[in-house]
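User: Can you predict the 3D structure for this chain?
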Amino acid sequence: MSSPERKLRLTDIINVNIWDVDSKPHITVNYDKCKNCPTKACVRLCPTGCYTETENGMLFSYEGCVECGTCRVVCPMEAITWTYPKSGKGIFYRFS
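Assistant: Here is the predicted structure, written as structure tokens:
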């Protein structure tokens, strides 16, 4: 008798990884450009929710970034500057 496969949620998959977060962000956001953004695509498409829209504008937290680059690609305002973290920093993927 086989057991049913357990479907993992994205958060479960991401949480098995580890981060060595650099004190210097590898992503910078031009918040002035964000104010005029019609789509807020980074908020909707970042797989780890690093971008949040608030009453006062955009809130960004790079500590949980999985370095996929989606935010840079989808930003219609070109408000996001994205580079890889310095060597040895950032996410370390662990596969289970």
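The chain has a mean pLDDT of 90. Residues 26-92 form a domain with the Alpha-Beta Plaits fold (CATH 3.30.70.20).
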